[in-house]
């Protein structure tokens, strides 16, 4: 199989990570969760007590941080942090960190290096529009705020977190606003991306729809 890049963008909770992971397994290519990279930096900053509004310290933190993916695990400075980066506190602050231009530039450099080495499917907010404008395939996943909040609520409740649906809706709406309005590489549907509304669709249906588009392409 030739080396390919598949970009999957969309707002928080649209199902990007779940779908991209399954497609990576079916196609035998590498899955890169770019959102998890920003979550990892946010988690590290919170753990170190760094003010989320202190851009200079966050940029320096980013420069001295190692992030890698192996066997569907994300490593932060050599430690697996799959669960830690999904905490609500991280979710509530990650968009603030991700809007910092210098932080995004460092992350984009790492993401492009990964795609130079092997075939990838990457999901995020700006993969098709900024990171890989010439990606072989581009998809934009979306769903209603209520649908996305319900999914996130069930995910967190199943992990034992004490959350309310109201808090999650508010968090998603805030993240959507920050992601869409940030100055540098905002969340936007690339002109040549195929939009897939995942509301009222099963994961299998979404995967099947995307794989059909790839096969036809």
From TrEMBL:
Q: Where is the signal peptide?
A: none
The record's similarity note reads: Belongs to the cytidylate kinase family. Type 1 subfamily.
Q: Which Pfam families match?
A: Cytidylate_kin (PF02224)
Q: What is this protein called?
A: Cytidylate kinase
Reactions performed catalytically: dCMP + ATP = dCDP + ADP; CMP + ATP = CDP + ADP
Query: What species is this protein from?
Result: Alkalithermobacter thermoalcaliphilus JW-YL-7 = DSM 7308
Keywords, in A-Z order: ATP-binding, Cytoplasm, Kinase, Nucleotide-binding, Transferase
Q: Which gene encodes it?
A: cmk
* Compartment(s) where it occurs, according to its Swiss-Prot or TrEMBL record: Cytoplasm
The highest taxon in the source lineage is Bacteria
